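Progress note, project year one: complex with iron/sulfur cluster.
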Amino acid sequence: MGFFGGFKVTFQEMFKPRVTTTYPESKRPKPIRHHGRHVLNRYEDGMEKCIGCELCAGVCPARCIYVRGADNPPTEPVSPGERYGFVYEINYLRCIHCDLCVEACPTEAITESKLFEFSFTNREDAIYTKDELVVGDDGAPQHLPWEDWRQDDDTHTSAWMRATSPSGSAAYAGRALWSGELGYGVRAAEQGQSGEAQLRPPHDIDPNVAGADGDPSGDGGHGSDHAADGTSHTAGGGTH
Ligand code: SF4
Ligand code: SF4
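Model obtained:
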């Protein structure tokens, strides 16, 4: 390429659409399965979902969760179970946002939003406490002063969970395995990798037939009585 040939490349690039954005003023939409800042969810009646079982802390590979459970006060229970988490902390200097805590949680108490735009100036501020993590009365994550929330950052938290299933079987794709989020109602199931519109009901699942072993056809020749968007299921209707 000669001297002027280099200028030709430059001029050609000048008239192509720009792919850069003026971050942070404008941000690109985040992937639906993005793992960001955690939230501690509550039930529609306001009760906290966390039962203080510490499974999330046990599974965390970065050892960044600290939970302590306590018996619910009989007159003013915090959660529907016998116990609740009275201390809950996440150290964001260590968290790698792997979502394993979300998968381990038996009550779907801990999920991850899409927010990653938050920062700290000292180590103490990097530790989020229960007061900061628990959702508000509207079921939405608290928007703390040092966080830069944008539209949809606080919806569909940890949507990854709905693309997989407890058994790992592709035959569960499209079934709602997730309780409703307070303030957002019951969410439809994600379609998973197959994207099949019609799926078999769970009692028909047989690992020896097509569909349960990952057959893209998904239906294995059976009929289906489940809506593709999972709307025939109610909150908590999964097979956890
Ligand atoms: S996302 Fe992973 S690293 Fe972060 S708190 Fe959960 S289990 Fe630990
Ligand atoms: S967030 Fe879930 S896994 Fe962690 S202590 Fe609470 S109920 Fe147990």
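Helices lie at 3-14, 55-59, 100-104, 130-133.
The radius of gyration is 22 Å.
No further modelling is planned for this target in the current period.
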